[in-house]
Amino acid sequence: MKQHRAAVLARCYLIDGCYQSGASATIRILMSSQLAVAPVNDEMSSVIAENAVVIRAAVYRDSVLKNGWQPYDQPSPAAYVPLSFKAMKRHRLRGFGQLLVEAQPSRGPVSTFTYRETAHGFSRVVSSLDEVWATIVEICERVGVPPRIANALPKATGGADLLAA
Questions:
Q1: Structural domain boundaries of the chain?
Q2: Could you read off the pLDDT of 48-89 as tens digits, one per residue?
Q3: Where are the beta strands (DSSP E) in the chain?
Q4: Closest C-alpha to 93, from 46, 123, 137, 27
Q5: Contact 139, 28 (CB under 8 A)
Q6: Residue from 144, 54, 61, 142 nearest 99 by CA
Q7: Which pLDDT score, from 0 to 100, does residue 63 have?
Q8: Listed residue (94, 72, 74, 81) closest to 29, CA to CA
Q9: What is the reported pTM?
């Protein structure tokens, strides 16, 4: 079996998730002062952080919001978040739906996997909150949020305060 060496990255963010055009997206943001990322195979990497903050978010079209299911009940991977609506802050996306952000991020050691970029998935390691927001804006646009609304998200939601950990 081929051994893969982990890249150890200082003060960075892993942002990953999946989306379904015209419907929804799920986003996980992992923030850490030290992150070890190692390829497992051609499709995924392992991610280890001794001390991290993890924030989950979702972008839901109005039709997803009205389907009667909690985020933890959603049948689509592009809509499933292991939280209830009560555990998330809501931000209106005029002409589309809502951005939901976990109100109480989890903290502590993390050992997880992330899939590499796919047709409907994304996984990026970035070094700043500006890059995190650029990725969120890009995913919102891929889902169908009007560009004018998506580009205003960092300012409209409080930007760094929204993702403050």
A1: 7-158
A2: 998 999 999 999 999 999 999 999 999 999 999 999 999 999
A3: 7-20, 24-39, 44-61, 88-93, 97-102, 106-115, 121-126
A4: 137
A5: no
A6: 61
A7: 94
A8: 81
A9: 0.86
